[in-house]
Every structure is written in structure tokens, then in C-alpha cells.
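Case study B.
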Amino acid sequence: MNTSVDKVTAAVTVTVLRLDGDLDASSYEQLIEAGRKAVDAGAHHVLVDLRKVPFMGSSGLVAFHTIALLLAGEVPPDLEGGWNAHHAMQRSVEAGTQTHLQLLGPAPSVRKALERTGMSRFIPIHEDEAAAIAAFA
Amino acid sequence: MTRPPGTAAELRRLRRLLGERDARIVELGDALAEANERNDQELRTAQRIQVSLMPRSFPDLGPEWQVAARYRAARSIGGDAYDVYPAHPGGEGQLGVGIADVTGKGVTAALLMAFCRAVMRSAAWNGTGPADTLARVNRVLARDVRSGLFVTALVAELTAATGELRWASAGHEPPLLLRPGGTVAELPAGGTMLGLFDPMETVEHRRRLRPGETVVLVTDGIIDAADRRGRRFGERRLRRALRASAGSGAEATLAGILDAVDAFADGMPQADDLTMLALHRVPKSA
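Model:
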């Protein structure tokens, strides 16, 4: 899988992680690393472009969740901290405010996995890039 | 050609240094090989323990029912498991089954699955049915487990006398129903992954299995199995393998799926565990 990074400035600056290739057990850590670098560089809004991802294994869910945790601002210093951050993020999801991480253009099989597991309730999904960028405002 | 003074001594010194360096490289190579062998051994031991936690013989429900399960570990340790048990301790005629998959790989996933499987069996024996079982496991995972991983699972309960199957899913692949004529239907599933939300959402489904019907549960390792060109086995090939096994019974159905995956993968090592479970109601004439 190849990863490239763009920045799009609209109402807010959105870091777009564009993926090309399968997102699976052999590549999900690469996505986490890209997300970590973006957060370290000051990103608050990340859009993961999945339009060129033909396949996603369940490891992809772990990557999305980890990046959402990093963006939640409670960077997990250890597993315990990470889990507290997860619970904090769950509360923000229930309040409908987890918008720091969004996804663009998943293939039907990828969307199916996101919906089947409930991850789509956690992370908003868009089909159109302009609409996705606007959703961060 | 004349040799500059001191070169011979310099050459000897360099040869000695190179010799020492070569010896050091061999030493480090040996140490690395030893460490790798130790890691491989520990991984193999962990895999053996993981396999030993899954039952090989199942409660007998009489001649009208067949149960089969398969587990094949990924090239590195994975986080799949299945379970088959009397639905109530000491009770007869009711069978509980479960299949689960941790959203990650490696020793962390395997340890979480070992924990999860024990919690699930206990929850099944203390709960009121499959949906309640999943809700109980979810409470433990969401509140007390801090691995950062999630679990998809499907739990079912079969009453042998009536053929009634009750099941509930936590974000798992839906069960597939294979009819004796060879048609394949996806049964409803739903429910969110374990550990993601507390409380979780899940729905209990019911269906009476008819003679000749087979219900097959799989983990995504089957559907996601890859060949050398990076293509995936997919749901279409799974359904085709199922159709080819119609009416052949639980064991033969799972063997047929595994053969189809192997033929497709053509020796490609798989990144994910392959796990399946089948319940078959034998036709009265068989």
C-alpha cells in the first residue's frame, strides 16, 4: 500500500491521507504511522481517502480507531490511557461530535465491513471529496 | 612495480581486522538465528495452546444432527476461535456454538481471544440466550479490557428436538444457510463489534432448521484468503463451494470450502486464521 499526504484548506485545514492498495494486516501500521505523523505535525482533522483501496481486512478498523484516538487529543501514553481515551471518544460519538476523522469513498466491500462492525457509527463516511472536506467545518 | 614501504605491514593489519570482523559477523548471525529459532518455538507453542483451547469432540445430539469445525492458523499467530458446548451445563439436547475473530493479529490478539473465549462460555452458561451472552461479554470487554482491539463474534443455540436455532451477532460475518437443493442464503446478523460500544446493539434471530439444511459460520479469513496475484477468495467463491457441497453433511461441507480456498490460494501463505463451523440436520431418509 502507498500513502500520500495532502492538505486542503477550507473552513478548517484538513490533512488528507490518500491510500493506494490493500489495507490489511501487512499495511495497517503504515496508516497508523501516517496518522501519527499528521497529528504530530499539528493536524486536527484527517480525511482518509479509500477510493483506491480495493480490500480492507479487519486490521484496517484498528488503524482507523487508533488515528481517531490520536486526534481525540488524549494520545495514549499506555494501554490504560488509550482505553480511557476510547471511552471519552465513545461519549463524543454518542453526542455526535466525533468528526476529527472521516473516510472517503470506501469500496462496497469496505463499506460493508465498516457498517457490519458498527465502525461506521464511529466514523462518518463520504462519497464526495468536497462534501467530506466541508463536513469538517 | 615497486611496492611502497610499509604496505605489506598495512595489508597484514587490514587482513587481521577483516578476519576479526568476519568472525564477529558470524557470531552475530548465529545469535540472531538462535533468537529467531527461540521466537519461532515460542510462537509454535502459543499456536499449540491456542488450538488446544478449541474442542475437537462435540456433544452428541443424536443421529439427526452433525456438527463440524475447522481452524487453521495463519502464518503468524492469529486471533480466531470457535467453541461448541452443551448450551446448559449438564443439560442434554441443546447445543451452544460460538465463533469469534479479534480485529488484529499476533500474540496480543491470541491472548485476548483465549480470555474472550472463556468469558463467552461462562456468559453463555449464565445468560438467557445468544444476545444476552454477547451483551455480557461486551460489558467485560468494553469496561475492563484495555487492549485497544475489538472482537467480532456470533453465538448460537440449537434445540435438537425442534431444530430451532437462535443466534445473535456482534459485527460478525452473517451465517450462511445451505439448502439441500444447493441454494445459499445469507441469514440476518447485525450487532456491533464487542468492545466498541457499551451497551452494545444486537438482535436475537430464530429459525427452524429443516432436514437437509446446513448452517455455516465463517471468519473473514475465509473470504479474505488471497492468491499470489493478491485476489481475494470472496463471497462468490464461498457460495460456489457451498453449492457444490449441498446435502453432503457438515464435515464434507467444511472440507469442500477448505479445498476450494487451497485451490484458489495455490500455496500462498495466509495472513489470517481460517475458521469455520457447520451445523447440519440430516434428512430422515439418509
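Chain B touches chain A at residues 101, 103-105, 145-150, 152, 171-173, 189, 191-193, 196-198, 200-201, 220, 224, 230, 232, 271-272 (CB under 8 Å). The remaining cases will be described in the next quarterly update.
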